[in-house]
Amino acid sequence: RNMSSAGPEGRKKMRECEGLIDSLVYYIQGAIADHEPNDKATENCVCILHNLSYQLELELPESYAQSIYVQRRNISNDKTPGCFGTRSRKVKEKQQDTPLPEEKSNPKGVESLWHSTLIRIYLSLIAKSTRNYTQEASLGALQNLTAGTGPMPLAVARTVVQKANGLPSIRAMLHVSHPAVKKTAVSLLRNLSRNPSLQNDIAREVLPDLVSVLPECVPGCEVACETTASICYTLFNLTQGSSHNARLLLSAHGLPKVIATSINDSNMFSKASKAASVLLYSLWLHTDLHSAYKK
């Protein structure tokens, strides 16, 4: 667990270590099957996988980059980029709709890190474990896997929201007392909400909960301020292109909370204040809601 947080070279060596990732996944599967999601070894295994999934899209070997970023057959003139970190914006936009290759039924090694089997394991641990570190690491692994705009993050996001029905488990984490767990759950939702095809599902399932955990006044610590900022940016993503979702925020009595956050300009709270102001500006662009806002 300590070694997995040693940096890019450490992560690379551990991902390449034959049987290591497979063994970690195997152990966690056994713990869940035996109804023991709270033991310390499971926590350690999940924390290692969480660390190994950090910046995964950027750090994958070129052979995986080539196979994941497959070009559509009708795009013949563009060169397939070999490095995740040097994609042009134009190529990125084309690749956003490019699906992942069909999942292997028996993934090995690094392939397991983004496979739907492990995604479902994380969601199961989020739902069943009561250890805060296990919950936070499971949420954090999914946050890592959904960071970015390539096919892999988008495919993982779709699996979480649509295939594995993960939103109820994530939503429950918004209401836990542990600040780091709540913050990581919100950060994951922020990543998921960037995908336009998932925004209506997310708004329907969790928008009222996001509004409910917005503070009535200035939070007293940095973690709470960062969480508030992430909530505002998530709500921005969900409402920017949807008047219906903006009305949902209004119905959930979110507007007074967002206004209260936006007008506080203390140094500690500036990040949350800026995020709330961006959200308010976006909400005002829905001109059909002006009369409702004024009321």
What is the H/E order? Answer: HHHHHHHHHHHHHHHHH
Q: Summarize the amount of helix as a percent range.
A: 55-70%
Main sheet characteristics = none
Overall mean pLDDT: 86
Number of separate strands: 0
CATH superfamily of the largest domain: Leucine-rich Repeat Variant
Word description of this protein:
This protein has 295 residues and is mainly alpha-helical. It folds into two domains: 1-63 and 108-194, Leucine-rich Repeat Variant (Alpha Horseshoe), CATH 1.25.10.10; 198-294. It has 17 helices and no strands. The protein has helices spanning 8-16, 20-33, 40-52, 56-59, 62-68, 89-95, 116-128, 132-145, 151-163, 167-173, 179-192, 199-213, 222-240, 243-251, 255-262, 270-284, 290-294. Helix 7 packs across helix 10, helix 11 (179-192) packs parallel to helix 13 (222-240) and helix 15 crosses helix 16 (270-284). The longest helix is centred in the C-terminal third of the chain and has 19 residues, at 222-240. It is elongated and about 60 Å long. Residues 79-108 are annotated as: Disordered.
In short:
Helix content is 63%, strand content 0%.
Outline the fold blueprint:
Blueprint: H1 8-16, H2 20-33, H3 40-52, H4 56-59, H5 62-68, H6 89-95, H7 116-128, H8 132-145, H9 151-163, H10 167-173, H11 179-192, H12 199-213, H13 222-240, H14 243-251, H15 255-262, H16 270-284, H17 290-294
Helix pairs in contact: 2-3, 2-7, 3-8, 7-8, 7-10, 8-11, 11-13, 12-13, 13-14, 13-16, 15-16
